């Protein structure tokens, strides 16, 4: 039955880890970090699909997640729409938005693409800061509690379970997608857009689909984060958040399914560990990024794979 | 009319600083193909170092020169790090420069502080009265120094042997190597030069806008926008881009909305990328990946 639904060993391992880990949580703070890690992982899976598989860099996904979150929150607080439905509307709106901007943006390549996504991201964050009547400005706004059909999410455990299930489901979809003809098309685009074009692949169409998909995932995670933390501020949509997400994906390992999760978890936990260094926090954080990029330019997941490869090779 | 003239003057002043940051980007991009996200932090390092050297009691001239030297050394450190990670892809090099930017910001927090600093203008607080609006001495200084730098760079690239070698290396690395040009040395000079130019911008701007450890983020991005608006790869395009950006920003802030001032650079950036990907100076390298 597992085979039939394409549930492989990696997904079972991930699920097992997600079930075991909470037993080591000593208080709500652990849950909080874990939930943020899971939501960041979600965004990074989408971003990894865009960057690692289709080869299109985005320095704006923090802003997309933040804007999606704001739309969901504003719909709820100003128009009294239930959370689930407002997230749904946010997803639709952001998907349309992503599709519209994807055509001119994804025509650009390399650094130009990076700069264009960065530009869109920064414009979004400036708008969220300035339109304070709607968004509460730089102070942010508080968010009503998250209820699904009258069932209220108020404990950390409920949130953890929700996010964990969402992550496993997304990874399962992602694995299937990557190993489908669609995934092979993406990788051919990453390899060479011209070659992909020459064998009849509508490159611009596929690039748009991946872009929209990654923005949809970011929107879902961004809105859930707002509902979970009970608060949303423009810093969710800031340039540094977008950068943080890209660093997570690259640090974990571009084009490696579990790399995004590894990167997201490490970079979510790291600042918490560094708080004891107080003033030196930013310094050490930067130094670690430099260190990883110099010694593991293909990311942490690649080191694990190399090790695994070497172990198996020596067994033979 | 007087109002417009005032906006133009302040736009040109800031525009020259964006131009300096943009030139710094271009110098590194041309020689190594790397987009350096720590360019803005070089600007910050220049301004902050000068402020603190002044506080330590050094005379202005000495602080200024020391700050430029310090920032050039930082540029060389970045080059060494990049040279050390030989087989990295473009994206991991971008992340490396981003990490370096975060590192420099952290360093500034520790070595200096998180406060906002300013310093006295180099040439006094006086100003000319021009057609009813004022042009401060500091603005004139920024314009003059920037123009001198641009002219000096032009002669450096055209007339000196090192400059020619740098041009050659940016056109074709392998051919330059075969001609006996020491690429490593050239790249190192490029990084130091780029950092020095950016730090001069930072020092000049500090008396006008003041500085803190985070000031580099926006300045760096706007300098980058200037470089792309002018046509990435051309130092003189960066100057044009910087001026266009400075003037647009000042006009929008004056006539439309000061809150959206910071968005101008990025709207202009997107407009250029969508409609004239080669920049104002339409160069053919635009599609280079």
Which tags fit this structure?
heterodimer, A: 316 residues, mainly alpha, two-stranded antiparallel ribbon, two-stranded antiparallel sheet, globular, B: 289 residues, ABC transporter involved in vitamin B12 uptake, BtuC, 2 strands
Q: What does the model show?
A:
- The complex is a heterodimer of chains A (316) and B (289).
- Chain A has 316 residues and is mainly alpha-helical.
- Helix content of chain A is 74%, strand content 3%.
- Chain A has one domain.
- Chain A has helices at 9-20, 28-53, 61-79, 83-106, 110-130, 132-135, 156-178, 181-191, 193-198, 203-229, 239-252, 259-274, 281-295, 300-315, and strands spanning 141-142, 146-148, 151-153, 231-232.
- In chain A, the strands form 2 sheets. In chain A, strands 1-4 form a two-stranded antiparallel ribbon.
- In chain A, β2 and β3 form a beta hairpin.
- Chain B has one domain (2-287): ABC transporter involved in vitamin B12 uptake, BtuC.
- In chain B, α1 packs antiparallel against α8, α2 runs antiparallel to α3 and α6 packs across α8.
- In chain B, strands 1-2 form a two-stranded antiparallel sheet.
- Helix content of chain B is 74%, strand content 3%.
- The chains are: A mainly alpha (316), B mainly alpha (289).
- The interface between A and B is large, with 44 and 48 residues.
